[in-house]
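stage 2 :: seqdesign
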């Protein structure tokens, strides 16, 4: 049955692949595209390991793949990772999820790191705000995506997976690079990057980037625009033969549009806009220090401190005559301070160990959602350890254990065990089990807010002829955490003679006490709250195939097949009026099947061509809407050039080459008779880069 499904799903990509090989046979070029055997990764156990030794599946995205994919927004690159789903920045920040469970405005079950620094914010629901991601695509060396829980290494936010973004070493950046993108939908991007020496012991890299677009057609009563400004600086110093110091800081500002032009309240003959179109301003500022010391040939120590501050603001005034009131539901601030140290060592010829500890303080201030509470602090301490044991050439064992104490969620133990059986140098079988926990956000434990202040609602009730003092949300300070038990069977084939590799993962993931924000009562004075509502079971198969059939051709092909089922925890929950839409949301929060393909081809005259294809079954991003089944193709054609000491590249990129389609919120509702869809239309732009 599985083979039949694979055959059906493979038909469109295989046709494209054969076309690509035909192009390759006709191409003339002597510059080979880099294709390596399974690389060394460090994101799973915090120990540098071959993929064949790692305790779970990892997808590595290198700089060539990022460039060839033609993405402008980083979250788009995860379409090339099995099991991931994403959609663009629009009136809502983009989201990137692994194996569904994408409720809330910001995905909170996949950990995202940049050079070891977590991007999780106490401000954005304990999730990641992709609209203010503080890294430029041009500064990324590689991305390691851990497909599967990794809470033992990175804590409860790594519930379903980890995205580890590793930036370019400043020592590799010299001179000045200027680039721009110019295209339809008001695509206007500008990048300035420079790097050089700091005395005799240091190197630096500085990047300024600006992004602009007016992406989606205005389908109803909203406006789509995205504006982003980034400043990023990193410097590395060699303090001696044993010590090195990395210092980085930056700030990114993102502006999107909030509001609905149709959201009005009648006041006599006047319409009062209660949710006007307005800019949503968001800022992320960070600083990080990372010190490394080599203790011996088999041992090293590192210490890291990071400080991150997130702010958001979308203030407006509701101009009710005589009773104007100020609204800023997003006028919040989140601050995270984190200290971490780790020690790795070889404890004999067959055993390697890494262990360490971390402490962080998450401070959240919100006049709306934490009214009267001032700044709410949440402290988390972790002690973690991973061991790799290789007693013989045919076996690698991995054992990990972490303990996490959360001042709001309590204590959790996070274990993992796996065994990798190397049948020979080309073929490995992996078996593994792990347990993880995922706690609610600070708002889930401490939040308390009304639609408008109660006193104001009482004043306005006789004027508006309606009670607008609705009790929106009340937290549960005793909220329990989600629990995830994962069993996986993996296969890795590394066929160097054929210049190809295959990574297969069969998984069974059971989530107990899945958390969901829910309103169980129609009474406006009874608030919603976050509660455990379901047990969820996710099963499936995903694989990634890489092949370099010719020196000038590189192919990456991925597929995922899955099924999600869920059961309500109590008969009362199963009997809710909206029980079926929520169950559908859970069960279809991940498409039943998805496929992606990336073809990279060298052409005559030194030109580069790439084609990316995506096929995705229908799914749900919310309980109130469906995202329809779609397929999409992106293409890029580039010509690198050099004139004397001046180098550069000119390129044409086209996204949605095959025409418009819906990726997010193909709604079952309409506003003012117009469909409330997010429709992605064809976007193309010219890129020009100069290297001095």
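stage 2 :: out
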């Amino acid at each position: 049955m599985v083979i039949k499904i694979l055959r059906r799903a493979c038909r469109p990509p295989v046709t494209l692949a054969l076309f690509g090989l035909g192009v390759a046979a006709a191409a003339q070029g002597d510059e080979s595209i880099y294709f390596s055997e399974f690389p060394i990764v460090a994101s799973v156990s915090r120990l540098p390991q071959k993929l064949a030794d790692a305790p779970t599946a990892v997808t590595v995205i290198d700089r060539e793949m990022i460039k060839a994919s033609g993405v402008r927004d980083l979250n788009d690159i995860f379409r090339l990772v099995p099991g991931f789903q994403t959609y663009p920045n629009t009136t809502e920040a983009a989201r990137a999820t692994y194996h569904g469970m994408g409720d809330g405005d910001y995905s909170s079950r996949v950990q995202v790191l940049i050079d070891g620094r977590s991007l999780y914010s106490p401000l954005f629901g304990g999730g990641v705000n992709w609209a203010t991601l503080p890294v430029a695509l041009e500064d990324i060396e590689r991305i390691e995506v851990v497909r599967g829980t990794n809470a033992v290494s990175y804590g409860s936010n790594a519930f379903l997976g980890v995205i580890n973004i590793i930036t370019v070493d400043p020592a590799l950046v010299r001179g000045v690079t200027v680039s721009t993108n110019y295209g339809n939908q008001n695509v206007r991007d500008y990048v300035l990057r420079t790097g050089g020496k700091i005395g005799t012991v240091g190197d630096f890299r500085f990047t300024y980037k600006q992004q602009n677009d007016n992406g989606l057609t205005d389908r109803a009563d909203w406006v789509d625009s995205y504006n982003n400004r980034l400043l990023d600086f990193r410097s590395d110093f060699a303090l001696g033969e044993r010590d090195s110091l990395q210092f980085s800081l930056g700030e990114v500002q993102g502006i999107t549009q909030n509001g609905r032009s149709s959201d009005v309240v009648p006041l006599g003959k006047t319409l009062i806009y209660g949710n006007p179109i307005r800019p949503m301003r968001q800022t992320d500022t960070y600083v990080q220090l990372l010190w490394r010391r080599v203790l011996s040939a088999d041992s090293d120590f590192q210490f890291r401190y990071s400080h991150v501050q997130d702010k958001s603001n979308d203030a407006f005034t509701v101009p009710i005559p005589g009773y104007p009131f100020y609204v800023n539901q997003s006028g919040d601030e989140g601050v995270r301070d984190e200290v971490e140290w780790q020690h790795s060592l070889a404890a004999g010829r067959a055993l390697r160990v890494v262990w360490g500890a971390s402490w962080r303080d998450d401070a959240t201030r919100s006049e709306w959602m934490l009214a009267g509470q001032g700044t709410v602090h949440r402290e988390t301490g972790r002690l973690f350890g991973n061991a790799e044991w290789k007693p013989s050439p045919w076996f690698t064992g991995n054992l990990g254990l972490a303990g996490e104490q959360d001042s709001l969620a309590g204590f959790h133990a996070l274990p993992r065990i796996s065994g990798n059986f190397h049948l020979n140098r080309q073929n490995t079988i992996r078996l593994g089990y792990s347990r993880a926990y995922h706690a609610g956000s600070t708002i889930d434990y401490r939040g308390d807010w009304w639609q408008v202040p109660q006193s104001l609602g009482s004043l306005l009730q006789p004027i508006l002829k309606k009670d607008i003092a609705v009790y929106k949300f009340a937290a549960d300070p005793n909220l329990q955490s989600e629990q995830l038990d994962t069993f996986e069977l993996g296969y890795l084939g590394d066929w160097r003679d054929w210049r190809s590799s295959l990574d297969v993962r069969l998984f069974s993931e059971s989530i107990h006490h899945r958390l969901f924000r829910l309103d169980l009562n129609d009474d406006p004075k009874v608030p919603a709250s976050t509660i455990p509502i379901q047990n969820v079971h996710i099963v499936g198969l995903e694989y990634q195939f890489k092949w370099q059939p010719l020196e000038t051709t590189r192919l990456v092909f991925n597929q995922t097949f899955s099924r999600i089922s869920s059961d309500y925890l109590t008969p009362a929950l199963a009997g809710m009026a909206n029980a079926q839409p929520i169950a559908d949301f859970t069960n279809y929060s991940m498409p039943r099947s998805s496929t992606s393909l990336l073809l990279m081809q060298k052409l005559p005259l030194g030109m580069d061509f790439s084609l990316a294809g995506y096929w995705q079954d229908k799914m749900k991003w919310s309980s109130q809407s469906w995202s329809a089944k779609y397929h999409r193709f992106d293409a890029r054609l580039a010509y690198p050039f050099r004139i004397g000491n001046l180098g550069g590249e000119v390129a044409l990129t086209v996204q949605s080459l095959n025409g418009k389609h819906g990726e997010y919120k193909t709604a079952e509702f309409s506003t003012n008779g117009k469909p409330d869809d997010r429709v992605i239309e064809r976007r193309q732009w010219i890129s020009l880069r100069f290297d001095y």
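stage 3 :: structure notes
- DSSP finds seven helices and 44 strands in the chain.
- Residues 2-691 form a domain with the Maltoporin; Chain A fold (CATH 2.40.170.20).
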